[in-house]
């Protein structure tokens, strides 16, 4: 599997503040990758490092085989839409497209103009008069019309209403289907990720806790409910991700390549939201849950 982004022991500090530390991950080519994690996990910092907007304090990061933003050719390979979907309020949509053409040597003017037309937007309209959803669509148009190999989206739909979010994500999937672009999408909205992502990376406390194709991850994680017992008494090969106990009952979130059956158990599959929240909850202090541990039996 070809990696389009590789980070090794990647770290970023601002004085004494640690924004990202010891982050190691690999983003496969040709996927729509969902990047999830609690606030402060380092998601935006990671994406800004991947774009070359900031430089690392330690470790290394490579995007498409090179250092991020190391030259015009490298910049042309990556499209980026920030969380606030920035546009220039005093410029018209047409002005934005002309600016995109001047700044990007691989600019696809036909693609940009066709997208604006399909969206029903007036090229003469000033960006400052657009709705949040419309600005997000203009920002996406600017990013995809440069024909990037990697498209990075940092919470681009967080402030949009449900209809605008759906329209944005539909546009995104059309771009992916037509051009085969690899996408990394950071979002707290798991329902949106379920719609569009086929690969998941969970970043907790700046470390990768979970990474893989969504179908494979869902096929190997289960909720196991049984009479009260200790994790160490479960069959060998079951990794306990999270456990909770009452006086008479134990519930485990387990990862296992095989769904080992026992008549005394209730074994249920997880959905994507269950999976994401399970790994995110490990970063919550005082949650009452025990953290990840390996079954040593």
From TrEMBL:
SMART domains, sorted: AAA
CDD domains: ABC_DR_subfamily_A (cd03230)
Domain of life: Bacteria
Keywords on record: ATP-binding, Nucleotide-binding, Transport
ABC transporter domain sequence ranges: 5-230
GO molecular function annotation: ATP binding
InterPro entries linked: AAA+_ATPase, ABC_transporter-like_ATP-bd, ABC_Transporter_VariousFunc, P-loop_NTPase
Protein name per its UniProtKB record: ABC transporter ATP-binding protein
Organism: Streptomyces spororaveus
Source species taxonomy: Bacteria, Bacillati, Actinomycetota, Actinomycetes, Kitasatosporales
């Amino acid at each position: 599997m070809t990696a389009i982004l590789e980070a090794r022991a990647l770290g970023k500090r601002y004085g004494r503040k640690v924004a990202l530390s010891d982050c190691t991950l690999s983003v496969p080519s040709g996927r729509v990758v969902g990047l999830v994690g609690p606030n402060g996990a380092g998601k935006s910092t990671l994406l800004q490092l991947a774009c070359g907007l900031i430089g690392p304090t330690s470790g290394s990061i490579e995007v498409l085989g090179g250092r991020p933003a190391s030259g015009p050719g490298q910049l042309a390979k990556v499209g980026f839409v920030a969380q606030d979907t920035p546009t220039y309020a005093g410029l018209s949509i047409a002005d934005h497209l002309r600016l995109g053409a001047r700044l990007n040597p691989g600019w696809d003017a036909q693609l940009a103009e066709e997208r604006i037309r399909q969206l029903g937007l007036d090229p003469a309209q000033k960006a400052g008069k657009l709705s949040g959803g419309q600005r997000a669509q203009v920002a996406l148009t600017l990013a995809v019309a440069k024909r990037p190999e990697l498209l990075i989206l940092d919470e681009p739909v967080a402030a949009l209403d449900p209809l605008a979010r759906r329209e944005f994500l539909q546009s995104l999937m059309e771009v992916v289907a037509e051009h085969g672009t690899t996408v990394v999408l950071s979002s707290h909205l798991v329902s949106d990720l379920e719609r569009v992502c086929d690969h998941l990376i969970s970043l907790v406390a700046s470390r990768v806790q979970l990474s893989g194709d969504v179908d494979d991850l869902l096929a190997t994680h289960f909720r196991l409910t049984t009479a009260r017992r200790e994790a160490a008494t479960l069959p060998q090969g079951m990794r306990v991700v999270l456990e909770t106990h009452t006086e008479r009952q134990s519930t485990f979130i387990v990862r296992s390549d095989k769904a080992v059956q026992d008549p005394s158990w209730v074994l249920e599959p997880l959905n994507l939201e269950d999976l994401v929240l399970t790994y995110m909850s490990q970063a919550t202090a005082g949650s009452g849950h025990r953290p990840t541990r390996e079954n040593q039996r």
